[in-house]
Write a structure and sequence with these properties.
The complex is a heterodimer of chains A (477) and B (98).
Chain A (H helix, E strand, L loop, with lengths): L2 H10 L5 H19 L2 E4 L1 H16 L11 E5 L26 H8 L3 E6 L33 H8 L5 E5 L6 H7 L2 E4 L20 E5 L2 H11 L29 E5 L9 H16 L3 E5 L7 H16 L20 H12 L2 H14 L5 H24 L2 E5 L14 H5 L6 H6 L3 E11 L2 E11 L4 H14 L1
Parallel strand pairs in A: 2-3, 2-4, 7-8, 7-9
Antiparallel strand pairs in A: 1-3, 4-6, 5-6, 5-10, 9-11, 10-11
Helix pairs in contact in A: 2-3, 5-6, 7-15, 9-11, 9-12
Chain B lengths: L6 H10 L6 H18 L33 H9 L4 E2 L2 E2 L6
């Protein structure tokens, strides 16, 4: 059952107050943070003040929004005016945002209580939160394992009930992969569905804000409050506003779900494959028709992504120059301004960022542009076409979210091995389609039961479709 | 086998990206980039002669707005300036460019 709906009822029936609810969650944060390190910043005082305002409104007999008074968190690459916003990077360690992101403004308007900013891989580049400059976040199911990434702090915070809901960002799977590793729901909407204004950019043609919650209905409720066109983001989609939680009928009769053979190849770990096909059977029991399909360019997606994303990153990160904001040296011996830039960036960026910026600069350099960037852009078109063809036959596509359960901290030191963790999620970003990861059970890994997610892809702008499919699954099992 | 990117070229690209690297980073990244770039070879398997480069992924075209200046409050101005690491009064101090 929706946690938001339940807490909202308690608030309007005066069985509980927002201050009490917020305090309970803040106490959980205090309890768990020394183990988890899910947060970079906790804003207790402001949260309690905002909660009090909601309580005052209730007392005055005013009606409140569903999300009002309920504590949540934002990934630390989403701006909150007057608050520290670091994107997990040393280069932004003391950076204070001077304005609210559009999602922040919309959440504040609905009365949501923001309790803090969550940890993430530096500039959202990573699949484990290990590249954060502010320490590693641990997986609540096993503290020796990663929560996934890059939105690992948001995932761990929701899974361990430090907050009711959290936002992350998803450029290649950064919401869905940690949702799978932490046993929660992670929704990445269609590219452009949610304004990116006020989000620290990684790869602008792929970046999308995503939602992390314990239940599907909660994700729908948060989406309703933050989605929609925004003048401040020219890439935000022209779309009519929808109340997504009203589309959850719990009925899948007559819907067709495609299973792409490329996602369940012989390389997939046997126990994950078994768990996945159990979930396929459950979708059948929900009334869906299962159809085998093919997305033939899948095996090229990872290479395509790791050309496009670092290329865009290298361009977006050019702004960190130590002049207007961010890490700087007041004194020092510099030959010239270039030398100053290079030393600031050399010491402010972590090694994964340097690796990707250099890779991106190389892929965009004259002489290599055609071989890498242009080629990748063309293959991106072919990957989109795969989905266009598939969606003529089926309504949704179902795959495992990740090829594995949460891995051990430090296990993936080779960058290419770490990139493979995104293999099932990146196609949605390349094609721009919406996708949701929802729990499908646990798989025994080294003697412990660890959660794993299944992923539904939907047609462009059909968030309500995949939300209803995931909701139906969740309701029945 | 010829390396895809020599250490010398790696340093050149790092300079273009305005990043200094330590000697260890040059060695490590050279190895990493070699394996990543080799992995990219996979893309040459596909004939893309007739494929179109992607534009905007959901097919949006130009979005226009009026070119108007928007004033911000003095509070916001102060907030922006408070992030400047090296100031002289209300000016941003930089090392001379020329």
């Amino acid at each position: 059952m929706s946690i938001i709906q339940k807490l909202h009822k308690d608030l309007v029936n005066k069985k509980n107050s927002s201050v009490e609810i917020t305090r309970n969650y803040l106490n959980k944060i205090k309890d768990k943070e020394k183990d988890l390190n899910a947060f970079i910043t906790i804003s207790e005082e402001q949260a309690l003040k905002d909660a009090q305002k909601i309580d005052d409104n209730i007392k005055a007999g005013k009606s409140i929004d569903l999300l009002a008074g309920l504590p949540g968190a934002l990934k630390d690459n989403i701006s909150v005016s007057g608050g520290k916003t670091t994107a997990g990077s040393k280069i932004l360690e003391n950076h204070v945002a001077s304005y609210d992101a559009t999602v922040t403004r919309r959440l504040k308007n609905s009365g949501a209580v923001l309790v803090g900013k969550t940890n993430c891989d530096e500039f959202a580049c990573g699949s484990s939160t290990e590249s954060s400059a502010f320490g590693i976040t641990k997986n609540p199911y096993d503290l020796t394992r990663v929560p996934g990434g890059s939105s690992g702090g948001s995932a761990a915070a929701v899974a361990s009930e430090e907050v009711v809901w959290a936002l992350g960002t998803d450029t290649g799977g950064s919401v869905r992969q940690p949702a799978s590793f932490c046993g929660i729901v992670g929704l990445k909407p269609t590219y452009g569905r949610i304004s990116r204004y006020g989000v620290i950019s990684y790869a602008s043609s792929l970046d999308q804000i995503g939602i992390m919650t314990k239940t599907v209905e909660d994700a729908a409720i948060v989406l309703t409050r933050i989605a929609g066109e925004d003048k401040l983001d020219a890439t935000s989609a022209h779309s009519s506003d929808r109340i997504y939680e009203h589309y959850l009928s719990g009925d899948l009769t007559g819907k067709k779900i495609g299973i792409p053979k490329e996602y369940v190849s012989k390389n997939l770990n046997e126990s994950i494959k078994n768990k996945f096909f159990e979930a396929v059977e459950k979708y059948k029991e929900c009334g869906a028709e299962i159809i085998d399909i093919s997305l033939p360019h899948t095996e090229y997606a990872l290479a395509t992504y790791y050309i496009i994303a670092p290329s865009e990153l290298s361009s977006n990160l050019a702004r960190y120059d130590g002049v207007r904001y961010g890490l700087s040296f007041k004194q020092g011996d510099f030959d010239n301004i270039q030398d100053f830039y290079r030393k600031i960036r050399g010491s402010g960026f972590g090694s994964e960022i340097k690796r990707r910026v250099i890779l991106g600069t190389y892929a965009l350099s004259s002489g290599y542009y055609d071989e890498y960037y242009k080629k990748a852009q063309k293959i991106r078109g072919l990957i989109r076409k795969d989905f266009e063809i598939a969606f003529k036959k089926v309504d949704y596509i179902f795959t495992p979210t990740t090829p594995e359960t949460a891995f051990k901290i430090g296990e993936k030191s080779d960058p290419l091995m770490a990139y493979l963790s995104d293999i099932y999620t990146i196609t949605a970003n390349l094609a721009g389609i919406p996708a949701i990861s929802h729990p499908i059970g646990t798989v025994e890994t080294d003697g412990i039961n660890l959660p794993i997610g299944g992923q539904l892809f939907g047609k462009w702008f059909d968030e309500e479709g995949i939300l209803n499919a995931a909701f139906t699954f969740e309701k029945n099992f | 086998m010829v390396k895809k990117i020599s250490e010398k070229d790696l340093v050149k690209v790092a300079n273009l990206a305005q990043i200094t690297l330590t000697e260890k980073e040059v060695l490590d990244f050279s190895k990493d980039l070699e394996s990543i770039l080799s992995y990219f070879d996979k893309l040459q398997e596909i004939n893309t002669e007739n494929a179109d480069e992607i534009g905007h992924i959901t097919g949006m075209t130009n979005v226009y707005r009026e070119d108007e200046s928007v004033d911000i409050s003095s509070e916001e101005k102060e907030m922006i300036l408070s992030n400047v690491p090296n100031k002289a009064g209300r000016h941003i101090r930089v090392k001379n460019v020329l």
